[in-house]
Design brief:
Keywords: Hydrolase
Protein name: Cysteine hydrolase
Radius of gyration: 17 Å
Bound molecules: tricarbonodiimidic diamide
Mean pLDDT: 97
Shape: globular
GO molecular function, one term: hydrolase activity
Structural class: alpha/beta
Organism: Svornostia abyssi
Helix content: 25-40%
InterPro entries: Isochorismatase-like_dom (IPR000868), Isochorismatase-like_hydrls (IPR050272), Isochorismatase-like_sf (IPR036380)
Number of strands: 8
Strand content: 15-25%
Strand order of the largest sheet: 5-4-3-6-7-8
Number of helices: 8
């Protein structure tokens, strides 16, 4: 039998084999975690996401030690914005929008400083960095191909924000047959109450989209 880890989780233990499991880190970009990016443009207090970084660093270190597939995603658009739906560009009716110049470069545009992943979680050689135009990581990307080609059946899902890109991606993954564990302290929201409810929505109804546990439960269960 393959080496499995059993993580105490909601609604019951999550069992996985590191060889068939990928760590997915969603949108840990400067534009969401630091001032003057997309998150702040939307009216949010970006400091609320900072507490996800330290536990996520530990999980990323453990995944690297185990040789797990690691996938980083970034939400953003081509410099010419041809992949940006007008609906997304104009939503919020703000003074600034996606593509507007800011201190960290053009907001949510690929290649700009603010669009890239924070230094504390910088990808290393061999890790996939996947650019996505939408909230879900499967939409208009080659994520499913990459997972299937690597024999991945299970996902450990982390990143920001819990009720937006993490939720959308977990729902997309669940519909494609992937078994998802979402880490409660490695995900974060600008709205603490949305974070709590989003996690409950995942594990309710017998695990309708997946499982929820904290990073300590995962790390203690690793082989
Ligand atoms: N606004 C918000 O909560 N999130 C996003 O726009 N994108 C992600 O969640 N990455």
């Amino acid at each position: 039998p393959p080496p499995t880890a059993s993580v105490p989780a909601e609604p019951y233990a999550y069992e996985f084999d590191p060889a068939t499991t990928a760590l997915v880190i969603i949108d840990m970009q400067r534009d969401f975690l630091e001032p003057e990016g997309f998150g702040e443009m939307l009216g949010n207090d970006v400091s609320l996401l900072a507490k996800t970084v330290e536990p996520l660093q530990k999980v990323l270190g453990a995944a690297r030690d185990l040789g797990m597939l690691v996938i980083h995603t970034r939400e953003g658009h081509r410099p010419d914005l041809t992949d940006l739906p007008p609906s997304k560009r104009d939503r919020g009716k703000g003074e600034k929008t996606i593509g507007s110049p800011g201190p960290k470069g053009r907001i949510l545009v690929r290649g700009e400083f603010g669009h890239d992943i924070i230094d504390d979680l910088a990808p290393i050689e061999g890790e996939a960095v996947l650019d996505k135009p939408g909230k879900g990581a499967f939409y208009a990307t080659d994520l499913e191909l990459l997972l299937k080609n690597n024999g991945i059946t299970h996902l450990i899902v982390t990143g920001v924000t819990t009720e937006v890109c993490v939720h959308t991606t977990t729902r997309e993954a669940n519909d494609r047959g992937f078994e998802c564990l979402v880490l409660s302290d490695c995900t974060g929201s600008y709205f603490p109450e949305f974070h709590e409810m989003a996690l409950k929505m995942i594990s309710a109804q017998g695990g309708i989209f997946g499982w929820v546990a904290d990073s300590e439960a995962l790390l203690s269960a690793l082989p």
